[in-house]
Amino acid sequence: MSAELLVRFVDFLVARHAFVVDATLAGVLTGALCATVGAVLVVRGESLVGDAVAHATLPGVAAAFLLTGHKSLPVLWLGGLVSSALTMWALAAIRASGRVREDAAIALVTSVAFGVGVLLLSLVQSAPSGAQSGLNTFLFGSAAAVTRPQLLQLVAVGALALGVVGVGWRGITLVSFDDRFARTLGAPVGAFHAALLGATSLIVVASVQAVGVVLVAAMVVVPGTAARPWVSSVASMAALAALIGAAAGWVGAASSYVFDGLPTGPAMVLAAAFALAFSLTGASMRRRWVGR
Amino acid sequence: MTGATLLDQSAWLTRGLTAGSLVSLACAPLGVALYYRRESLMADALAHTALPGIAAGAIIAGAVTPLALFGGAVGAGLVAAGAIALLASLPGVRRDAAIGAVFTTMFAAGVLLLSTRLRGVHLDPQCALFGDLLAVGDGSITALAVAVATVWLAVAGGWRVLEASCVDPGWMSTLGVDDRWVRAAVLGLTSLVVVSAFEAVGAVLVVAVVVVPAATAALVARSLSGAMAIALAVSLVALTVGFAMAVALDVSPTGAVVTALGVVFAATLRWTRGPTQSSAASAAYSSSLR
Predict the structure, then answer these.
(1) Of these four, A24, A78, A221, A237, which has the most CB atoms within 10 Å of its CB?
(2) How far apart are CA A177 and CA A234, in angstroms?
(3) Given A101, A139, A261, which is nearest B119 (Cβ)?
């Protein structure tokens, strides 16, 4: 039994099957990308924005499919981007009204967007085309099903999103720590918020394919939270979180290859959660013994 | 359409509306309590952790019995609430990050269990996520009725304490009741309601039925009891409209009900100029002091 698992693990390491390389790269990339924007969101106290964006892709994906009848990735991504942008706009409008509690506002937009998605999805499923099966992988994700062109699209989208965050980095960290101070400096606060949300949407929408709607939220929050106790700047936090996310992606892909039938997305999340438990326990011990 | 299928249709429509009304009755007062206690996100967390709970319950009991699923889900809710409290108590971990980390991780564990240990078992993750208002079983209706009775008894019995805890922690401290007990009671009830509503509306959408009517009511209500009444009304209106839409267009009733809830909220936000959140709280405070 264990010898067989070992053989499988070696198979995985030497990349005996070509699809394994693509699936592993997809896992590592999504892990690292989600963790990078996630680190900034965690610092801002907006950990659940990733969750909202991920849920909000569903109506767009279903609508794009209904309108075009195509299941091709760019079309679905575009739909997901549009609906998550609309949802973020709705969240911003609700917050700006000052009439709804912050925590309730995010739970509200997340669940309503998802409800609209379920409504549209039921239209897709009653549509005669019968080509809807691929939409289900959007809910739970499937890294093993990622093809080479999809991987390249993920790389392109990731580079674009990281480019946006990189260019606006100073502004994004400034408004994240002190919004009011940034305003008095005359910084384009709205543009920086929009840049971060835009990058988040790009990455989350591109990642949903590999890890699924609910689990993308985990890959946004967990690595950043795990990195938090060990760093003293947002940049190093993002770097450490990206490392944790990438490692979780690798572990997820490896264990889903070694253990037959183990899905990659949940395995990634559990690997990241393990890192979180390890990190927080370590931080507690350090506080006790080193006193800081 | 023959007479028999028409009769069938009206039978499951009645059943679906009954289940939906029970969900509304259970969720409205609870949602309002969660809203004013700033714990709306816990509904989100507890709804997601019901999935691993149900899976674990089925594995531990060795069978898919209602009691095993129910026990598993409530147990998972307790574990989640404990883990969130523990994480949030650590320095450098915000409460929203703790909530986000715990429930998504537990959900991942649930998906993992469903796709490995329970692969042969009849537990459809999609049904668990979305529910099916039109295919609600007798057991589910009974569970919902019990949940409604429990929620209303608890709210009526602990009204004074609940009102104080929602309105003013300072007032709360004069009552001699530790707020942690109120939190435990509210979260326990939320767990119960979420699990009971599981088959009818699914894990993800029960969040909407808890959060949206309460947030809508809070836009206009001037007292806690008023907020609960408005939330219930909003919920029932959305249920009726959503059901009509689902039947007319042949779409998912759950999706239609949640969409209707969203529309009611948006319209209320747009066309009312009710009290802001702080004055709503003080209005509730003054009305309860009368």
Answers:
(1) A221
(2) 10
(3) A261
**Calpha distance B77→B190 (Å, rounded):** 9
pLDDT tens, position by position, B221-234:
989 999 999 999 99
Q: How far is B174 from chain A (nearest CA, A)?
A: 26
CB–CB of B94 and A118 under 8 A? no
Per-residue pLDDT of A151-173, as tens digits, reads 888 899 999 999 999 888 888 88
Question: What does the DSSP 8-state code read for residue B272?
Answer: -
Please tell me the number of Cα atoms within 13 Å of A116 on its side-chain side. 23
Q: Extract the tokens encoding A7.
A: 């053989």
What b-and-e string marks burial along B6-39, b requiring 16 or more CB atoms within 10 Å of the CB? eeeeeeebebbbbbbbbbbbbbbbbbbbbbbbeb
Question: What is the number of alpha carbons within 13 Å of residue A185 lying toward its C-beta?
Answer: 11
Query: In the numeric block, which tokens belong to residue A194?
Result: 């929009």
Q: What is the ipTM of this complex?
A: 0.88
Residues 6+ apart with CB under 8 A from A179: A189
- Considering only CB atoms, B211 lies closest to which of A107, A267, A273, namely A107
3-state secondary structure of A45: coil
